[in-house]
Amino acid sequence: MRITVLGAGSWGTTVASVLTRRDHESLIWARSPATADEINAKHTNERYLEGFPLPGRLRATADLAEAAAHAELLVVGVPTGAFRDTLVQVRPNLHPWIPVVSLSKGLERDSLLRMTEVIKEVLPGHPAAALTGPNLAKEIMAGMAAATVIATEDLTVATEIQRVFRRGLLRVYTNHDVIGCEVGGALKNVVAIATGIAQGLGVGDNTRAGVISRGLAELTTLAVAMGGEPSTLAGLAGMGDLVATCISPQSRNRHVGEQLGRGRSLDDILAEMGQVAEGVKTVHAAVRLADRHGLAMPITRTIHRVVTGDITAEHAYGGLLRTHPAGHESDPG
Ligand SMILES: NC(=O)C1=CN([C@@H]2O[C@H](COP(=O)(O)OP(=O)(O)OC[C@H]3O[C@@H](n4cnc5c(N)ncnc54)[C@H](O)[C@@H]3O)[C@@H](O)[C@H]2O)C=CC1
Ligand SMILES: O=C(CO)COP(=O)(O)O
């Protein structure tokens, strides 16, 4: 199958590599012509996947029109802040009705939409799906066993995409609960910043486990308020991804939190990283959704105050496990 992957960062490049090794005719779109040239000539992407050889048959282009026209299946792996614009640009050259799969984990800042909702708005008529779960890019590149979820309401489309992605030790599950899957993937990045802060401040494992568990309660509360199913958040797209992101030193969101916990400024951390940490932006949308649904969500609100510079990470620490302003504290609810 001819598949186009938009975005040649760590995850887009990884997914394009998996699909090429699965014998699909994959074309990856890189914003930077230098990155496209490097992938074509040297079969590497050193900035994002240092030390990993890419499959020789993976082709890259910096021409978005060419990338769009190639696709029988479109996979979108640009950061959520660029998601809508990128879809608008590919729209004129896209074949009608082809499925579009989002790899991106976050919420659109102004509209508060999930990425499959953005797909449906910009590309009406195209089936929209999300690929999500505990999928740290470098582990997948290394061929380590992992599980992922393809989320879409239409089981026929889900099964077809499942077949396309399944390879070796990458096990692909389906889930019809797109809301639960996407809210889990977006919110776990915010909780990973919180656990990173705890890590940077040098707290104990009990505290980190507390933040992760209460974080899961926040993922679940918001997802259910938005129409998702609680069981989704207990699975790969919720707890699975939350655990991977909160415990792994590879996570960029956790890294941001850890550096904040060590007293560094957010601007310095982001400037030095040169990679996306979606939780930093998604937290703004998450707080507005919490307000809309009348939810306490203390971890999310605390991280929002840190990211906006209202309080320091050290100040945040005392509030991370606070449950409810009225003093009603029950677990897991
Ligand atoms: N890296 C990982 O392990 C995983 C990442 N994700 C998600 O995938 C999405 C992409 O993440 P990564 O590839 O890791 O990010 P990255 O930071 O490694 O790469 C981002 C890519 O997007 C491009 N980009 C940045 N701004 C752009 C713009 N305005 N227009 C067009 N392209 C732009 C960059 O040039 C780069 O190629 C994120 O939403 C992330 O949460 C999901 C699962 C795993
Ligand atoms: O989503 C991820 C793993 O599933 C990657 O997390 P980070 O974006 O924090 O690196």
From TrEMBL:
<comment type="similarity">
    <text>Belongs to the NAD-dependent glycerol-3-phosphate dehydrogenase family.</text>
</comment>
<feature type="binding site">
    <location>
        <position position="241"/>
    </location>
    <ligand>
        <name>sn-glycerol 3-phosphate</name>
    </ligand>
</feature>
<feature type="active site" description="Proton acceptor">
    <location>
        <position position="188"/>
    </location>
</feature>
<feature type="binding site">
    <location>
        <position position="133"/>
    </location>
    <ligand>
        <name>sn-glycerol 3-phosphate</name>
    </ligand>
</feature>
<feature type="binding site">
    <location>
        <position position="253"/>
    </location>
    <ligand>
        <name>sn-glycerol 3-phosphate</name>
    </ligand>
</feature>
<keyword id="KW-0560">Oxidoreductase</keyword>
<feature type="binding site">
    <location>
        <position position="188"/>
    </location>
    <ligand>
        <name>sn-glycerol 3-phosphate</name>
    </ligand>
</feature>
<feature type="binding site">
    <location>
        <position position="31"/>
    </location>
    <ligand>
        <name>NADPH</name>
    </ligand>
</feature>
<dbReference type="InterPro" id="IPR036291">
    <property type="entry name" value="NAD(P)-bd_dom_sf"/>
</dbReference>
<feature type="binding site">
    <location>
        <position position="252"/>
    </location>
    <ligand>
        <name>sn-glycerol 3-phosphate</name>
    </ligand>
</feature>
<feature type="binding site">
    <location>
        <position position="251"/>
    </location>
    <ligand>
        <name>sn-glycerol 3-phosphate</name>
    </ligand>
</feature>
<keyword id="KW-1208">Phospholipid metabolism</keyword>
<feature type="binding site">
    <location>
        <position position="10"/>
    </location>
    <ligand>
        <name>NADPH</name>
    </ligand>
</feature>
<keyword id="KW-0443">Lipid metabolism</keyword>
<keyword id="KW-0547">Nucleotide-binding</keyword>
<dbReference type="Pfam" id="PF01210">
    <property type="entry name" value="NAD_Gly3P_dh_N"/>
</dbReference>
<feature type="binding site">
    <location>
        <position position="278"/>
    </location>
    <ligand>
        <name>NADPH</name>
    </ligand>
</feature>
<keyword id="KW-0444">Lipid biosynthesis</keyword>
<keyword id="KW-0520">NAD</keyword>
<feature type="domain" description="Glycerol-3-phosphate dehydrogenase NAD-dependent N-terminal">
    <location>
        <begin position="3"/>
        <end position="156"/>
    </location>
</feature>
<keyword id="KW-0594">Phospholipid biosynthesis</keyword>
<protein>
    <recommendedName>
        <fullName>Glycerol-3-phosphate dehydrogenase [NAD(P)+]</fullName>
        <ecNumber>1.1.1.94</ecNumber>
    </recommendedName>
</protein>
<dbReference type="Pfam" id="PF07479">
    <property type="entry name" value="NAD_Gly3P_dh_C"/>
</dbReference>
<dbReference type="InterPro" id="IPR006168">
    <property type="entry name" value="G3P_DH_NAD-dep"/>
</dbReference>
<feature type="binding site">
    <location>
        <position position="105"/>
    </location>
    <ligand>
        <name>NADPH</name>
    </ligand>
</feature>
<dbReference type="InterPro" id="IPR013328">
    <property type="entry name" value="6PGD_dom2"/>
</dbReference>
<keyword id="KW-0521">NADP</keyword>
<feature type="binding site">
    <location>
        <position position="105"/>
    </location>
    <ligand>
        <name>sn-glycerol 3-phosphate</name>
    </ligand>
</feature>
<feature type="domain" description="Glycerol-3-phosphate dehydrogenase NAD-dependent C-terminal">
    <location>
        <begin position="177"/>
        <end position="315"/>
    </location>
</feature>
<dbReference type="InterPro" id="IPR006109">
    <property type="entry name" value="G3P_DH_NAD-dep_C"/>
</dbReference>
<feature type="binding site">
    <location>
        <position position="252"/>
    </location>
    <ligand>
        <name>NADPH</name>
    </ligand>
</feature>
<comment type="function">
    <text>Catalyzes the reduction of the glycolytic intermediate dihydroxyacetone phosphate (DHAP) to sn-glycerol 3-phosphate (G3P), the key precursor for phospholipid synthesis.</text>
</comment>
<dbReference type="GO" id="GO:0047952">
    <property type="term" value="F:glycerol-3-phosphate dehydrogenase [NAD(P)+] activity"/>
</dbReference>
<keyword id="KW-0963">Cytoplasm</keyword>
<comment type="pathway">
    <text>Membrane lipid metabolism; glycerophospholipid metabolism.</text>
</comment>
<feature type="binding site">
    <location>
        <position position="11"/>
    </location>
    <ligand>
        <name>NADPH</name>
    </ligand>
</feature>
<dbReference type="InterPro" id="IPR011128">
    <property type="entry name" value="G3P_DH_NAD-dep_N"/>
</dbReference>
<feature type="binding site">
    <location>
        <position position="276"/>
    </location>
    <ligand>
        <name>NADPH</name>
    </ligand>
</feature>
<feature type="binding site">
    <location>
        <position position="48"/>
    </location>
    <ligand>
        <name>NADPH</name>
    </ligand>
</feature>
<feature type="binding site">
    <location>
        <position position="137"/>
    </location>
    <ligand>
        <name>NADPH</name>
    </ligand>
</feature>
<dbReference type="InterPro" id="IPR008927">
    <property type="entry name" value="6-PGluconate_DH-like_C_sf"/>
</dbReference>
